[in-house]
Specification:
The chain is α+β, with helices and mostly antiparallel strands. It has 2 domains: 95 residues, Phosphorylase Kinase, domain 1 (2-Layer Sandwich), CATH 3.30.200.20; 202 residues, Orthogonal Bundle (Transferase(Phosphotransferase), domain 1). It is built from 11 helices and 11 strands. Helix 3 runs antiparallel to helix 5 and helix 5 packs antiparallel against helix 7. The longest helix has 21 residues. The termini are far apart.
């Protein structure tokens, strides 16, 4: 396909192709009149293009971006335009912010099997969380969070210590929160199999918690340089979906990660979406919050920095012994100690807690109580049991 097969815009020239997907193609675009860059358009943009007859996903992305303007952690949109291709077909073009640092997927690939540094991962994760929090607050679910859909843009903040800022892009599959997807001609699920949550696979439910699960997969991939699920050579997409949706298996969290990284990932990998951490809760986690001072100097992480909001957190005699109540206790990796409680004890208490938290308001009240008294140790479990009985 030649560069100009889709034609130039009124104010911009179409440049080289920089990406291609099922939606269409992405090209670089430069302004015909450089003086315009100080008014509205930047000097360089990314133009996502497809023939009008097959541009539904791109037009949907334009609609979503119109409703979530103003967030510095989401790719900006500069409008849309229709051009005429060389074959006479009408072409729909969406003008977007250009991520000169490439995609997060490309960055991970360049890092090799060792993954990115934890400093870099924390900065990218913090940006993605802020973007997701904004999307969820507006009432949308991204539905396709993955490294390919996260773009790296030069960081304008001199004190951050990071070269690039991660920005969320590709919202063509986004949907309104609590919007039913069971309409004719719609796919069974949206998104990429490797990053789908258990409830998306088994129950066709993709709400805000599904984005958090996908975020956890991205963070794990950044830290390890490997996909979130182990795949044998003969495994196809259907096999991966069975692995995610069936049973109680979770992505493996390596034992060599920092305590804070493992703790953060456990908050994302809770199979029951009701108990999974929200973007707002994770923004207060020490893995991403308050790590860089005004001079851009990284300070050491400390367990005392943990500020868990609205979460059920049990802290045993050792600070290392962190565990979360969820539908499935396998969210705690094999590298973590259960202290002086046996795994059977935890499973029994989990069943009791689940029955107590059947009512959402009781669950919220219990979360607040747990936050206030979490430093009392494992005795807090018995306290809540008595309180709610």
């Amino acid at each position: 396909m030649s560069v100009n097969e889709f034609g130039d815009g009124v104010a911009w020239y179409r440049g080289a192709m920089v990406g291609k997907g099922s939606f269409g193609c992405v090209y670089l675009a430069t302004l015909k009149n450089p003086r315009l860059k100080n008014s509205y358009f930047p000097a360089v943009m990314a133009v996502k293009s497809a023939e009008v007859s097959v541009s539904g996903s791109i037009q949907k992305e334009r609609e979503v971006l119109n409703n979530i303007k103003g967030c510095p952690y989401i790719i900006r949109c500069f409008g849309d335009e229709t051009t005429t291709g060389q074959n006479g077909a009408m072409v729909y073009n969406l003008l977007l912010e250009y991520g000169s640092g490439g995609t997060l997927a490309e960055r991970i690939k360049k890092s090799g099997i060792k993954g990115l540094s934890e400093f870099e991962v924390r900065n990218y994760t913090r940006s993605m969380l802020r973007g997701l929090h904004f999307i969820h607050t507006i009432g949308y679910v991204h539905c396709d969070m993955k490294p390919d859909n996260v773009l790296l843009v030069p960081n304008s903040s001199e004190g951050s210590g990071a070269e690039f800022r991660a920005k969320i892009g590709d919202l063509g599959l986004a949907k309104r929160e609590n919007q039913s997807k069971k309409r004719r001609l719609e796919p069974y699920w949206r998104g990429t199999p490797m990053y789908l949550s258990p409830e998306a696979v088994s129950d066709n439910v993709q709400e805000c918690p599904a984005d958090i699960w996908a975020l956890g997969c991205i963070v794990l991939e950044m830290l390890t340089g490997k996909p979130p699920w182990d795949r044998e050579e003969d495994m196809d997409a259907e096999d991966v979906l069975k692995k995610i949706g069936g049973g109680h298996e979770l992505p493996k969290i390596p034992g060599n990660l920092s305590k804070e990284a493992k703790n953060f990932l456990k908050g994302c990998f809770v199979r029951n979406p009701r108990y999974r951490w929200t973007a707002e809760m994770l923004m207060n986690h020490p893995f991403v919050e308050g790590l860089i001072d005004d001079e851009g100097v990284e300070r050491p992480l400390e367990v005392e920095d943990i500020n868990v909001v609205d979460s059920i957190l049990l802290i045993t005699e050792s600070d290392d012994e962190l565990a979360y109540y969820s539908e499935d206790w396998s969210c705690v990796s094999e590298d973590d100690s259960f202290g002086y409680w046996s795994e059977d004890d935890y499973e029994e208490m989990e069943n009791e807690m689940t029955s107590y938290f059947a009512d959402e308001e009781i669950f919220k009240d219990a979360c607040q109580i747990m936050h206030l008294i979490k430093n009392l140790g494992t005795a807090v479990v018995f306290f809540i049991t008595v309180l709610l009985s």
